[in-house]
Amino acid sequence: MSVAGVERIALDVHAHLAPVLRDRLASIAGVTWDDAAGALTIDGYTLAAKSVYRPEALVAWMDEQRVERAWISIPPPLYRLDLDLAAMRDWVHYANDGLDVMASRFPDRLSPLYHLPVTHPALAAEVATERARTSKARFAMPAGSQDHKTVLSDPDFAPLWSTLDQVRGFLFLHPCKGCDPRFEPFYLHNLLGSPMETALAAAHLAMSGVLERHPNMTVCLAHGGGAAAAIAGRLERGQVTGRPGADTGAEKPRISFRRFCVDCITHDAATLALAAARHGEDHVVFGSDWPFSMGLPEPHRQLADLDPKLRQRIFQHNAKALGLL
Question: Architecture of domain 12-321 in CATH?
Answer without folding.
Answer: Alpha-Beta Barrel (3.20)
